[in-house]
Recover the amino acids of this structure.
């Protein structure tokens, strides 16, 4: 039997040297964070902020019975609580959380996640099953930790950093 050349393709998308072929793209489930901190909709903003501080995070998925209802971010707290003069000790997460959240499925390709982040200008994607159960979280930082994804992360970050025309009230666009 002849020896395999160093770049001979094998079944399953692997090359004989162990590298993945481009035909076999990475899936979200392969790199998503599975250890998640979540918060319930009836928690106070004070509780949410304390959890974010303790865990050094800027976002918490809001879940009830493992189902994703929305997210609460440090920015939500700043804009919808502090700037409006609301009391963080009595304001509930459900009253200020972001309800319309861009999500992705664990079996989707990482390239799809990168495109969603770019198109929707988000740094975090909750990973949900078809029934809405939260099973993971994908962030630009998680993607950046993968070797060889510098260009993809750069593209995503560039897209995230662009001003949104809908928010600009005509200042940046026609």
């Amino acid at each position: 039997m002849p020896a395999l050349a160093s770049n001979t393709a094998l079944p399953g998308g692997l090359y004989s040297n162990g590298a993945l072929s481009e035909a076999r793209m990475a899936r979200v489930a392969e790199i998503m964070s599975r250890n998640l901190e979540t918060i319930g909709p009836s928690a106070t903003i004070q509780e949410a902020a304390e959890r974010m501080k303790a865990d050094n995070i800027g976002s918490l998925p809001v879940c009830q019975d493992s189902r994703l209802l929305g997210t609460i971010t440090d920015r939500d707290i700043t804009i919808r609580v502090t700037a409006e003069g609301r009391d963080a000790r009595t304001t509930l997460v459900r009253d200020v959380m972001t309800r319309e959240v861009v999500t992705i499925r664990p079996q989707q390709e990482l390239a799809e996640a990168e495109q969603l982040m770019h198109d929707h200008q988000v740094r975090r994607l909750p990973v949900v099953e078809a029934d809405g159960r939260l099973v993971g979280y994908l962030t630009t930082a998680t993607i950046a930790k993968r070797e060889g994804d510098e260009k993809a992360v750069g593209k995503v970050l560039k897209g995230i950093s662009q001003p949104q025309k809908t928010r600009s009230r005509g200042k940046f666009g026609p």
About this structure: The domain at 26-162 is CATH 3.10.580.10 (CBS-domain). The two ends are 66 Å apart (CA to CA). The beta strands are 59-64, 67-73, 124-128, 134-139.
